[in-house]
Design goal:
By secondary structure, the chain is mostly helical. It is built from 4 helices and no strands.
Length: 73
């Protein structure tokens, strides 16, 4: 199995419980990769400008409480 199309065809043949097991594993892999990328970006300084802007926004009051932003009372 080499192509996405071949993999998709094999997935379509899975029993339902195996399908859900596979999707859970794929989601976990994607989440782990996201975490690795964020960690790498943080270590290399790629997030520094965003963090500095966020701190400035907090210090100058240009933020809303999360509940207000989410329209939760």
């Amino acid at each position: 199995m080499c192509t996405v199309e071949e993999i998709e065809a094999a997935i379509a043949k899975l029993p339902e419980d195996e399908f859900w097991k596979l999707t859970d594993r794929l989601i976990a892999l994607r989440e782990d990769e996201w975490d690795r990328q964020i960690e790498s970006d943080a270590k290399t300084g790629k997030l520094d400008k965003l963090w500095e802007k966020a701190k400035t926004d907090i210090e100058t009051g240009r933020v809303k409480p999360l509940d207000e932003f989410l329209d939760n009372e």
